[in-house]
Amino acid sequence: MKTLRRTFYTVLLAILAFSAKPVSAQNTDPSVVAPFLRYPTIPPFEIKTLDGKTIHREDLAKRQGTLIMFFSPDCHHCTEQVESIKAIINDFQKYNLVLATYQPMNDLQLFYDRYKLSEWKNLYLGRDEKFFFPPYYKIANLPFIALYDRKGNLLTSFQGTTPADKVLNGFAKKN
Fold first, then answer.
1. Residues 98, 29: Cα–Cα separation, whole Å
2. 63: which residues sit within 8 A by CB, 6+ positions away?
3. DSSP labels for 31-83?
């Protein structure tokens, strides 16, 4: 019985090993690549603001670049990210700052008040009610940040807490 079981598992492992797809450093299957990498421009997003208005890509001011950050108001890493940016907010004045979450509006309002985001004149803050950003960016960790140049072309992206100076350096790649 043990020999039969051992033979069965050996054959099963051999079949699995030979039928598995080879692992490569770069996956070329387009269904696996995040859409933001296939279409490297500012996406056609829609976020609902705290006052009930809707903001689209076309509503962004013509600045030197755009930062899109998907976050959660109750995420510790997200609050660290906002504090990091806030510490050098003057360096971010020439960029659009789009902060989006899927969390409820009352949580977003508390976050807005807590971090005094009304002082950020270049801020577009809202709720991603259609849950567009997570699948578009294939977000695995929060906060997620994508940077775009003045023409709307993707520069780079970050997942997880990233020092604000590193984020700023991301804008320098093509600007």
1. 30
2. 94, 95, 96, 122, 150
3. TTS-HHHHS-B----EEE-TTS-EEEGGGS---SEEEEEE--TT-HHHHHHHH
> Of all residues in the chain, what percent carry a pLDDT higher than 70?
81
Give yes or no for a contact between 155 and 65, defined as CB atoms under 8 angstroms apart. yes
pTM of the model: 0.80
Separation between Cα atoms, residue 57 and residue 45, nearest integer Å: 6
Could you state, in order of their start, the residue ranges of all structural domains in the chain?
27-171
Question: Which DSSP letter does residue 115 get?
Answer: T
How far, in whole angstroms, is CA 25 from its chain's centroid? 23
pLDDT per residue over 97-133, tens digit each?
999 999 999 999 999 999 999 999 999 999 999 999 9
Which tokens in the block code for residue 49?
Answer: 């603001």
Topology of the domain covering 27-171: Glutaredoxin (3.40.30)
